[in-house]
Specification:
This protein is α+β, with helices and mostly antiparallel strands. It has 5 domains: 75 residues; 220 residues, Aminoglycoside 3'-phosphotransferase, Chain: A, domain 2 (Alpha-Beta Complex); 228 residues, Glucose Permease (Domain IIA) (Distorted Sandwich); 256 residues, Type I PLP-dependent aspartate aminotransferase-like (Major domain) (Aspartate Aminotransferase, domain 2); 108 residues, Aspartate Aminotransferase, domain 1, CATH 3.90.1150.10. It has 32 helices and 38 strands. The protein has an 8-stranded mixed beta sheet with strand order 12-13-15-22-19-18-17-20. The radius of gyration is 34 Å and the shape is flat. InterPro entries: Aminoglycoside_PTrfase, Aminotrans_3, Aminotrans_3_PPA_site, Dup_hybrid_motif, Kinase-like_dom_sf, M23ase_b-sheet_dom, PyrdxlP-dep_Trfase, PyrdxlP-dep_Trfase_major. Its cofactor is pyridoxal 5'-phosphate. Belongs to the class-III pyridoxal-phosphate-dependent aminotransferase family. It holds the Pfam family APH.
Length: 1002
Amino acid sequence: MEHVWLRGVAEQFGIAGGLRQLGGEYDLNFRGRTPEGDVIVKAMRPQGEPALVDQQCAAISHALAADPTLPLPRLLPAEGKRFWQSVADAQGQQRMVWVQRAFTGIPMGEAGPQPPAVLAELGALTARLDLALRDFKVTAAPDAAKWDLTEAGWIKPHLDVLEGSRRALVAGIVAGFEALKPALDKLPRQTIHNDLNDFNILVQPRLGEPAHISGLIDFGDMTHGPRVCEIAIAAAYAILDHETPEAALAAFVAGYHGVSALSAEEIGLIWPLVRMRLAVSVVNSTIEDKGRPNDPYVTISQAPAWRLLENPAIDGELMGARLRNACGLPVTDAAGRIASWIAGQRGSFAPVLGRALDGLPVGSLGIAEATIPQNPFELRADEARNLGTGLGITQQWWLGQYGEPRLVYTDKAFRKGRWLASNRRTIHMAVDVFAPAGEPVRAPLAGKVALAENRKGHLDYGGVVILEHRTPAGDVFHTLYGHLAADGAAKLKQGQEIGAGEAFAKLGPAEENGGWEPHLHFQLALTLDGMGHDWPGVADPDDWALWQAICPNPAALLNLPDETVAYQAIDEVALLAERKARFGANLKLSYKRPVTFLRGWRHHLFDAMGRPYLDAYNNVPHVGHAHPRIRKVAMDQLARMNSNTRYLHPAPMALAERLTAKLPKELEVCFFVNSGSEANELALRLARAASGGYDIVTPDHGYHGNTTGAIDISAYKFNKPNMGGRKPWVQLVDVADDYRGRFRRDDADRALHYAQQVDGALAAIAERGGKVAGFIAETFPSVGGQIIPPPGYLAAVYERIRAAGGICIADEVQTGLGRLGDYYFGFEQQNVRPDIVVLGKPLGNGHPIGALITTRAIAERFAEGPEYFSTFGGSNLSCRIASEVLDIVEQEGLSANAKAMGEKLLAGMRALMADYPCVGDVRGIGLFLGLELVTDRETLEPATDAAAHVMNRLRDMRILVGREGPADNILKIRPPLTVGADDVEMILDRLRICLREVEAAR
C-alpha cells in the first residue's frame, strides 16, 4: 500500500484495496473503499493545530444539526469524542487524520460548466449553509488569511508579478475593491465556509435531467465575514468557462436570494467581489508557481480565471442590473418610480411626430406573422427599404410593435456566438412609427441632448439622438430617437435644452437612416447602467426579462395604451394544451421539452422567439428549408393551375425523364403518388401482380410507411403493442447489422451469412403453401439503426429472391437523390439493380410527393388489373416542385457537399469515439450517419438513456438530431444537404460536451 504510515487508519476503518491520493493545496486527501461505501481520509499538514480540525468537525456537526439534509461530510468517529487521531507520516512528523463518508459525484471543476438550474441549486445550498452556520462561532483562524476576501487588498503590493495589460486589469479591480471596502466592512458578519471553489463542490451528473449538487466539502478555510463574500467566492468558480457567465451568475444569485433574501446593497457588491476573488487567485497562483512550478493544484484555475476577467463582453454596471432583476428587484432604486410617473402622465405628452398616433394600423414584422427577410441570415437592401410593402401595408403611417421577435436583424453584430445557430438578438425594444422621410421629430417632454450623432453603418440608426429627462422627483431617464436625417442630428449639441413638443430632428430617408424604410425607432431607458450611449435596440430572447426591465414599453410617452403596441407572443403552454386536446395521443412530439418552430432556412429552423437551431435531423427538406427556387416554382404553378394526371401536362413527363435518367435503363415507367407510404403500398401491388405471389420477405425493424399495407410489412410498427404482430405472409430476416448483429465485422463472409437467411424465409413461405411476391428493404435501414449493410449483401439477397420468382424493391426514401454523396441512390453502393425503386418526401423537399419507378414488364402486368389513379399524385404542382429539387441538387453541387460534409462529420465522430467509451460505433455514408451509444463496448449493452440524454441536450444547445434502432440508442444525423463546415464543427463541439456528460454519469 502507498502511504504505509496510514495503514493503521485503513485497518481501523476497514479500508481495503489501498488509498488513492486526491488534490489539495496544503493537506493530504485520499479516497478508499470500505464495506459500507467509499470514504475520504484527510491528513492535515504537519504541526497542524488540533483546534482547527476540531473546529471543522464541530462546524459540520453544527450545520447538519441545523439543516440535516445539507450535502455535507458525514464524519466517522476515531477515538473517544474526537473525530481525528494523530498519526506519524513517513518522515515521522505527526499529522492529524480523520475519516468521512465519501460523496457520489465528481468535482464541479472536472464536470465542466453547469446549466442554470444546477447553479440555482448551488446558490440555494450556499444560502442554506450560511443560515446553518450563522450562529456558529469561529475561534481558530487558519494560517491562510490571504483567502479572507475582506482583506483581499493584500495583493496590491504584489501586482508586479503580473505583466502588461494583465497587471493594469488587476490594478483596476483592486482600485474598485478599495472603493467598495467601506461598504463591505459595514455589512453584518457571520461564519462562512469561505472556500466553495469548483473543487470543493461535488456534482452528480444524471442522464435525462440536470446534474445535482451532491457535496460541499473542505471546511478548512472558514472565517468570519459578510455572506456576500461567500456568494462571491462560490460564484466566481462556478461560472468559470461558462458560455454565458452573466446568466450563470444570475442563476446562482437568484437561487441564493430565493432562500435568504439579499439587500440591494449586497447585490451591488457581488460582481466586484467575484472579480476580486479571481484577482487574488491569479496573483496567488502566479506567486506560488514560482515556488512550486510543477504543482498543478496551484495553477488549476488560473487560465479560466483569466478568461473570465479578460472577457470584454461583460459590463459591470449591466451585471449589477442583471443581478437585481434576477432577484426580483428594480434594476435601479429609481426605476420603479420613473415607470410609475410616466404611466401616470399618459395622454399628456407632446406627440413625437406632431400628430396623434392612436388609430394608426399596427404592422408586425414578427417571426410568426412576417416572412421578412426571406433569408433570416441576410436582410436584403430592398427588403429593408420596403418593410410595409412586404407586409402588404399600403399606408405611409403605421406602427411597429414593442417586444416583437424579428428576424430582420441579420448583421453579425446581432449574433452572440461563433455559430449561425448561436444566440442572436431578435426582440425589438422600441416602438416604431413609420412615416414619410422629412417628418419633424419632437420631444414628448422637456429634456436635454445627451447624444447626437450619425451612425453610418449598414442597418444601423443613421442619425440618432438621446434625450435626458427628469421627473418632478429628480429621477433621470432617457429616450432614444433612431433613423433620423443626418443633418438634424449634426446640428444638436450635447447639453442643449429641448422643450416639450419642440422639433429637434427629422426622419431620415433610407440613404441616411441606415438603409431602412423611413421610420422613428422610439425607445425608453430607465437607466444607462451598462449601456452608456450605445443602446442595444434589440434583445436576446434569453435576456428579455432583463432588457424589458431596463427598456420598458414606451407606449405611455406616445400617449398610447401599452397593449396597442405590445407584441402578443405565442402562448406555447396553451398551444401544447390545445394540441393535446385536438389530436390523438399517439401523435408524438419530439424532445422532452417540445419546441415551436415558425420559420426555416436551408439547414436552420427558428423558434417562436427567433432563436436559430441547426437542423441535423430532418431529411425531408432535402435541399434546405424554404428554398427560394421551390417557392418561386410553387407560386408560379399555383397562379396557373393544379390538376391531376387525367389531363396532359408537360410537368409529369419532365419529372419522369429526370428520374429515369438517373436510374438503370430498365427502370423506365413512373408512378407518382403523395408520399413514400403510398409508393410502398403501390410497390406491394405491383410486386404481387408481376410475381403472382403474395408473401413478402423484409428485414426486421423496418419501416415503410403508415398505410395498412405498409404497416403490415414494417416490423418497427407491427411489433408494437396492440398492432397484431406479424402477418403469416410476412417473413422477417435479420437487419444486416455487422456491428451488433448475428454476423459481425470479424466475419469475412457476413454478407453471405445474412443473405442466406432469405433461404429460410423462402422455405417458410413454401411450407405454408405461399408464393413469394418480393423482397422490400430500406437500402440502408434507417429505423433499424442507420445501418450500412456489408458489401455484397443485397446482391446475394436479390439473387435468391429472383430465383424464387420474386420482385426486388428498394425503398430509397431515406437514401436517394444524392444524400450519400458518391451514390445518387443507395442501391448503387451495393452494386445491384432493383426491379422497383421507391422515393418519398425528400423528392418534394417537404411538398407531398412520392414516386415509384419500375420496369416496363412489371408495369404492364400491373396494368392488367383495374385502373390506377391518385387525385393529387403527379399533380402539375408536385411534379414541377420535384423537378426543381432535382435541378437544385445538381446545380448547387449538393451531392458533392454531402460527400465532403459527411466525411468531415464521420471523421470527427470517430475521433470522439477514441475519447469516449460510451460511443460503440460510428457509421454512415454521406449525410446518412449514425452514432451508437453503449454502456459496454464488450457486451454492446445499448445505452438507451444516454442516447435520449444526448438528443435532448443537443436540442438545448440548438441542434436537432434523432434516435433510432431497436433499443433507441443510435443517434441519427441526416441534415439537409446544404449543411456546411461550420455546422459540422458545431455538431462535433456540442457532441463532445454531451458525451462528456454521459461518461461523467456512468
